[in-house]
């Protein structure tokens, strides 16, 4: 019954994209036409197809998978005059193509991933080797987001390339990709960190930190995730990555993690010398991260980190439970009498995000406490009731309103992540066991590498 529900939702999302948005990056399910955002530049790159492939494969939707593969083979072209986000293209496209390759063995996915990676390499041509946020796929010219602190690059963007780039070197035998990401790591290791925390901004020209903001939510989040996952992906041989992770989460626990008056554990954000008692939906992934990193943690603290993961999962479930729609807001505060509730209108939306369900899935894998499946089913029912429209699935603008308005976007990550984690939450542990697979930050599974089989040698860049 459960698994059928997720197949039904996946088919509804895919079939409508297939009919109304095919080849576009995303779908507007109410207007029933294609949609794109600036992260994908101005060209039709079929982001939903690439992002959804591995989910289709895992769910056994092989006809749909073949349709996607055929489109990629014939139409996916990276020699376009288009300025894209290096981070987004890496996690969605390179991650999605690599996962599709490892699951299906179809060479076309590997070939396309390597082609695209070559188009991203010019972004690293900066004085420090810290890449630009954006690169033009045709000209190779890079630049940073106008809004980022003093022309800085963003920690979660340049720090979320490691898994994919190590796999690229593994598959091609070319160390260039590995060297690019190891250079970033070495540079970060040398730098002073205020309070042991990594600021979210780093200037790629000077190699100095921008504003001293630190977050485990947007702008910081997946950097910490990829330190842990670099270690896991290396079959636990990359001890340098594990040490960086342990040091970072020690500082996070000391400075950012607090308990509210009502007893809810939350992760705040460090801004201008003080802790902002606000947590974003994106930060909710950290419950799963703490659980995933529990085994192998310092000083026998595995139980402590599993418990911390459970507390974060509980807090994030409360952020869902305290709304009218039983869907979580984009950000929620812990001030005075207000706990786990959004206060600003522009933080009350739910855009089909996966992070809370991701944490439920990791907690389920490590504890098998049935409440995680129950919570996942609550979210499923809410998504199906309030986000499903005849032309697909849409985000909603206010989770506290009983008659919500739609944002009319079916995000590619809904198919890549949200529906995949729900499906896995109700599947057996032997489907993609965590001993053999490490999921990138877009939920694309990549195999653990036994690096003695590596075709290339480690060399310092």
TrEMBL record:
InterPro entries: 6hp_glycosidase-like_sf, Glyco_hydro_47, Glycosyl_Hydrolase_47, Seven-hairpin_glycosidases
Protein's membrane topology: Single-pass type II membrane protein
EC number: 3.2.1.-
Pathway(s) the chain acts in: Protein modification; protein glycosylation
Listed SUPFAM superfamilies: Seven-hairpin glycosidases
Chief site of localization: membrane
GO molecular function, one term: calcium ion binding
Catalysed transformations (reactions): N(4)-(alpha-D-Man-(1->2)-alpha-D-Man-(1->2)-alpha-D-Man-(1->3)-[alpha-D-Man-(1->3)-[alpha-D-Man-(1->2)-alpha-D-Man-(1->6)]-alpha-D-Man-(1->6)]-beta-D-Man-(1->4)-beta-D-GlcNAc-(1->4)-beta-D-GlcNAc)-L-asparaginyl-[protein] (N-glucan mannose isomer 8A1,2,3B1,3) + 3 H2O = N(4)-(alpha-D-Man-(1->3)-[alpha-D-Man-(1->3)-[alpha-D-Man-(1->6)]-alpha-D-Man-(1->6)]-beta-D-Man-(1->4)-beta-D-GlcNAc-(1->4)-beta-D-GlcNAc)-L-asparaginyl-[protein] (N-glucan mannose isomer 5A1,2) + 3 beta-D-mannose; N(4)-(alpha-D-Man-(1->2)-alpha-D-Man-(1->2)-alpha-D-Man-(1->3)-[alpha-D-Man-(1->2)-alpha-D-Man-(1->3)-[alpha-D-Man-(1->2)-alpha-D-Man-(1->6)]-alpha-D-Man-(1->6)]-beta-D-Man-(1->4)-beta-D-GlcNAc-(1->4)-beta-D-GlcNAc)-L-asparaginyl-[protein] (N-glucan mannose isomer 9A1,2,3B1,2,3) + 4 H2O = N(4)-(alpha-D-Man-(1->3)-[alpha-D-Man-(1->3)-[alpha-D-Man-(1->6)]-alpha-D-Man-(1->6)]-beta-D-Man-(1->4)-beta-D-GlcNAc-(1->4)-beta-D-GlcNAc)-L-asparaginyl-[protein] (N-glucan mannose isomer 5A1,2) + 4 beta-D-mannose
Cofactor(s), by name: Ca(2+)
Family according to the record: Belongs to the glycosyl hydrolase 47 family.
Protein's name in the database: alpha-1,2-Mannosidase
Organism the protein comes from: Chrysolophus pictus (Golden pheasant)
């Amino acid at each position: 019954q459960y698994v059928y529900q997720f197949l039904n939702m996946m088919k509804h999302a895919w079939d409508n994209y297939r009919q109304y948005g095919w080849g576009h990056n995303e779908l507007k399910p109410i207007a029933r036409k294609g949609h794109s955002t600036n992260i994908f530049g101005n060209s039709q790159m079929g982001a939903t197809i690439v992002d959804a492939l591995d989910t289709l494969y895992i769910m056994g939707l092989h006809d749909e998978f073949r349709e996607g593969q055929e489109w990629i083979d014939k139409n996916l072209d990276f020699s376009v005059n288009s300025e894209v986000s290096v981070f987004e293209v890496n996690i969605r496209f390179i991650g999605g193509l690599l996962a599709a390759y490892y699951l299906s063995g179809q060479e076309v996915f590997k070939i396309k991933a390597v082609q695209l990676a070559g188009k991203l390499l010019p972004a690293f041509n900066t004085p420090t080797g810290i890449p630009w946020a954006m690169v033009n796929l045709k000209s190779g010219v890079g630049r940073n987001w106008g809004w980022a602190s003093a022309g800085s690059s963003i920690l979660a963007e340049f720090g979320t390339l490691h898994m994919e780039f190590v796999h690229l070197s593994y598959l091609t035998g070319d160390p260039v990709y590995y060297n690019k990401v190891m250079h970033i790591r070495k540079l970060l290791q040398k730098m002073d960190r205020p309070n042991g925390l990594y600021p979210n901004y780093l200037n790629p020209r000077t190699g100095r930190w921008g504003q001293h903001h630190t977050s485990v939510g947007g702008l910081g989040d997946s950097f910490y995730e990829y330190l842990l996952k670099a270690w896991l992906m290396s079959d636990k041989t990359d001890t340098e990555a594990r040490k960086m992770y342990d040091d970072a989460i020690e500082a996070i626990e000391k400075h950012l993690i607090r308990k509210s008056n009502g007893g809810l554990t939350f992760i705040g954000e460090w801004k201008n010398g003080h802790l902002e008692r606000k947590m974003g939906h994106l930060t909710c992934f950290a419950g799963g991260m703490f659980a995933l990193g529990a085994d192998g943690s310092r000083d026998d603290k595995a139980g402590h980190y599993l418990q911390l993961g459970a507390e974060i999962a509980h807090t994030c479930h409360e952020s869902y439970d305290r709304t009218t729609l039983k869907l979580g807001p984009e950000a929620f505060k812990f001030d005075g009498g207000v706990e786990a509730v959004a206060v600003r209108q522009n933080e009350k939306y739910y855009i089909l995000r996966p992070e809370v369900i991701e944490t439920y899935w990791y907690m389920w894998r490590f504890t098998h406490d049935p409440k995680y499946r129950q919570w996942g089913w609550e979210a499923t029912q809410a998504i199906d009731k309030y986000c499903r429209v005849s032309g697909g699935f849409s985000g909603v603008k206010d989770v506290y309103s009983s008659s919500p308005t739609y944002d009319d976007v079916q995000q590619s990550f809904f198919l890549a992540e949200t529906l995949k984690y729900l499906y896995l939450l109700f599947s057996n542990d032997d489907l993609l066991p965590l001993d053999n697979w490490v999921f990138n930050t877009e939920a694309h599974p990549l195999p653990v590498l036994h690096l003695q089989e590596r075709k290339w040698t480690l060399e310092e860049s």
